[in-house]
Each structure stands twice: as C-alpha cells, then as structure tokens.
Amino acid sequence: MSEGLDEKLEPIYREVLHRNPGETEFHQSVHGVLESLGPVLVKYPEFAELKIIQRICEPERQIIFRVPWQDDKGELQINRGFRVQFNSALGPYKGGMRFHPSVYLGIIKFLGFSQVFKNALTGLPIGGGKGGSDFDPRGRSDAEIMRFCQSMMTEMYRHIGEYTDVPAGDIGVGQREIGYLFGQYKRLTNRFESGVFTGKGLDWGGSCVRTEATGYGVVFFTEAMLDARKESLDGKRVVVSGAGNVAIHAIQKAQLLGARVIACSDSRGVILDEGGLDLDLIRQIKVRERGPISAYAERRKGAQYNEDGCIWEIPCDIALPCATQNELTAKDAKTLIENGCVAVAEGANMPVTPEGIQAFREAGIAFGPGKAANAGGVATSALEMQQNASRDSWSFEYTEGRLQEIMCNIHRTCFETAEEYGAPGNYTTGANIAGFVKVARAMEAMGHI
Ligand code: NDP
Ligand code: 2IT
C-alpha cells in the first residue's frame, strides 16, 4: 500500500509498517495522511530535518491493561483495555473510548492518529488520543456494563485528568457508560473534576448539543460543500449508514434542512423507507429498546428490511457513512456514482476505503473526509471543557451556533488549503495538510518532544 508516496515519505511509511506489524487499520490511516504531505516538505524542509513525521507516527504513550469483571451469573470475564495517548502538542490528549469486540491495538491507534489532525482542525486547544476495549456491550445488563466500566476506570484513572487526557464516547460508549466511568473516577480521586470527561449528562457537567454534535456537524459540513457548488440539501435524497449516535443526529439535521432521508442500517441489516425515515421510531428501537433495526419494518407500513443488504445500492443524491471503518468500498463508490450521487461526507472514522475515496475523487464528487466532516463531536467536547473550566453552562442555541461556526471554519480551512497546495476541491488533501502543519509547527516550537 505504499504506492503514491513521495520519495522522502516512502521510507518513513516502510518504517511504520515494520514497527507496527499486523496493525492494518493504523497503516491505512498513516498512509492516508502521508499521501498528502509531499508538498508540505517542499514548503517546510525543516519538518524533514526535525523528523516531525516520524515522531507524529509514534504515539507518545500506549497503555494496555487487564479489565476483569463479574457477569450476572457470577462468572469472571477478562477483557483488554487500551488508552493510546498519541500527541499532546496542542493540548491534553482528547478522544473517545470504543467498546466493541473488534477492538485491538491497531484500531485504537488508527483512531488516535486521525484524532490528532481532526482535533487540530477544530482550532481548539486539544491534543489527540483514543481508547477502548474488546468488551462487547451487546446483550449485557446495566449492572454488567457498570461493573465493567468501574473495573476499566480502576486502572485508567491514574492516566487521565483534565490537564492530561480527556476521554469521551465512541462506538458502544454513550452517556450511560460515561456516567459509570466518571462516577468511578470521582470516587477513586475524591474530586469532582468535570473536565476529565466529555459527553456527560446535562445535570452533572455535560454540554448542550454534545449528544447531537457529530451528526449535526456532518450535515453542516455537507451543506458547506454543497453551498460551494451552488447547491443545497433541500429536497435531496439522503442515505445514512448506521443507526447509532452519529447516524441518528445526521438524519435529524438533514431532515430539518429539507432533505428526504430514506435509508439507514445497523450491523445486521438495512432499512429502506421511501416515505422518509420516522426518527421517533428509530430512537424508540435503537436508543430506548437497544434492539435491532429490523423492528422498524415490522412497525412501519411501506418500509422494507433487507438482512444482508448493501445500503449503498439504494439510489441517492447524498451518502453519509456513519457506522464504522471500511464500510464503503470501491465497488460501493462506483454504484453510488452510477446512481447519480453528488456528495459524500464521512460521519464515521475512515468509513470509505482508499480505493473508494479515489473513485469519488476521479468522478469529481464532493467528498468530506472524517477528520473534517465528523470533527463537530470533538469540537463540542472542547466547548464542554470550556464550560467546565469556567463552571458555566451555555444554552442549546448558543452552543449550536458555535458548532455551526466551527464547521464552516473547518470547511473553509480545508477548501483554501487544498487550493493553496494545488489540489482544488480535494478536501482530503486540505484537511491532512492543514491539520498536520498546525501540529508540526507546535512540535517544532517545543523542541525535541
Ligand atoms: P454507536 O455505537 O452509537 O453506533 C454505531 C452504529 O454503527 C450502530 O448502528 C452499529 O450497529 C453500527 N456498527 C458498529 N460497528 C459496526 C460494524 N462493525 N459493522 C456494521 N455496523 C456497525 O456509535 P457512534 O454513532 O458514536 O459512532 C459511529 C461512527 O462515528 C464510528 O466510526 C465513530 O468512531 C465515529 N465518530 C463518533 C463520534 C461521536 O461523537 N460519537 C465522533 C466522531 C466520529 P448495531 O446497533 O447493530 O451495533
Ligand atoms: O472520533 C471522535 O472524534 C469521537 N469519538 C469524539 C471524541 C471526543 O473526545 O469527543
């Protein structure tokens, strides 16, 4: 996967492959950034001399630990916990926690690496990190989730803090899990340190709009891309993969802006509802009941459920992949292009494969990379940290206004950076370069860190 790299970057990438064997998702995310950096080394030769790229590819600290817990039958279960503290040049490590059986070091490192540049793009003072566990929350009772979270925090608490490392949610981690994790941190440290976690409940230090922020932000970014092409969301057919936190709020904001959202999915299958998705019903099934999305078709007339279906085969104007990494391949990209899709924005982290991204680029489709398009979540986390630091609490309207402004700024930064480096319209290049240069400059200023 080293084709397309500048001759100075090729050996750096080979070294990353050699030092991190088997971590394919991490390799993919590093390659995706290095691909854009050739012209940066021409403009800033000092970054090569200072080995900034080699340093950025090596996490500052990686913590792997045992998480033992007892299930409801009294049986002992053992999981593995991770926290990868990738880069703190711009601020405390910041990034979510993922609970999913597929989690291993390579996934946490790909997420942590992307987070460094995403967080830089927000313009807010946050470094990059990520954590999680191979724990599978599916089918577990609240009591089991609590015992797991408490055991996880019993090790993790010594590594985090409002000035050190500030976790939040990701796949499998929402407000319930953050409550249990924060509660155990408070108990172990004897401190009500609000700023140590984001995504908290509104009654105990959380911020308005944090729950909605990633999905809303994806749609604000899509709107900005369409606006740059003198188009709008109004009346567009939209398809959103996933039915979790990001997908639900992307559906909601797209509907509010006049789009017709006709399909979503979960890890088991796809729902098509030509009448437009009923968001209350999705929330009832996926949030309150924590059930499978197939229940939607049983309760809504005219809706179809396709168990092994591919959501990208449904003709649409706009596609928003909001479930997981590598869920949209080159084949899917070609199908979307043939069906007349004009814009794609990544709500999930790295949902489109490199070949898929290339197909969109060649077809001239507006493509918003995750580092830019889904940065609204972590940006609002940084707003939550601001409110915690000043013991303040902002209104929904004010916070949403800040989010919208941040997403417009990120869009403008990516757009202008792509133009400046000779790749007009290529938001991937723009996001990678703008994020990287900001972190690299800070590292240069701080010496050999
Ligand atoms: P949730 O756990 O709330 O939802 C995840 C959704 O994706 C569920 O519908 C789930 O299906 C589906 N899904 C998860 N894994 C797979 C898989 N391997 N194959 C198919 N479907 C899968 O997570 P979020 O909505 O928070 O996260 C979604 C994506 O957005 C992730 O890539 C995450 O990293 C990214 N992201 C999240 C942010 C946030 O603020 N939460 C911020 C920025 C990015 P099922 O219900 O069946 O499990
Ligand atoms: O991938 C992401 O940006 C997140 N899961 C959110 C991170 C955060 O700290 O809010």
Explain this structure:
This protein is an alpha/beta fold and 449 residues long. It folds into three domains: 10-56, no CATH class; 59-193, Rossmann fold (3-Layer(aba) Sandwich), CATH 3.40.50.10860; 213-370, Rossmann fold (3-Layer(aba) Sandwich), CATH 3.40.50.720. The chain is 47% helix and 15% strand. It is built from 18 helices and twelve strands. The protein has a seven-stranded mixed beta sheet, sandwiched between helices. A five-stranded mixed beta sheet has the order 1-2-4-3-5. α9 (210-228) packs across α16 and α16 packs across α17. It is globular, with a radius of gyration of 21 Å. The two termini are 29 Å apart. Bound molecules: NADPH dihydro-nicotinamide-adenine-dinucleotide phosphate (NDP) and (2Z)-2-iminopentanedioic acid. (2Z)-2-iminopentanedioic acid is lined by residues 94-96, 115, 118, 168, 170, 198, 349, 377-378, 381.
Main attributes?
alpha/beta; Rossmann fold; seven-stranded mixed beta sheet; binds NADPH dihydro-nicotinamide-adenine-dinucleotide phosphate; binds (2Z)-2-iminopentanedioic acid
The pLDDT mean sits at 97
Q: What low-confidence regions span 5 or more consecutive residues with pLDDT below 50?
A: none
CATH class division of the largest domain: Alpha Beta
Shape descriptor? globular
Q: What is the name of the CATH architecture of the largest domain?
A: 3-Layer(aba) Sandwich
Task: Count the beta strands.
Answer: 12
Q: What small molecules accompany the polymer chains?
A: NADPH dihydro-nicotinamide-adenine-dinucleotide phosphate, (2Z)-2-iminopentanedioic acid
Please indicate the percent range of residues in DSSP E strands (runs of 2 or more).
Answer: 5-15%
Question: How do the helices and strands follow one another from N- to C-terminus?
Answer: HHHHHEEEHEHEHHEHEEHHEEHEHEHHHH
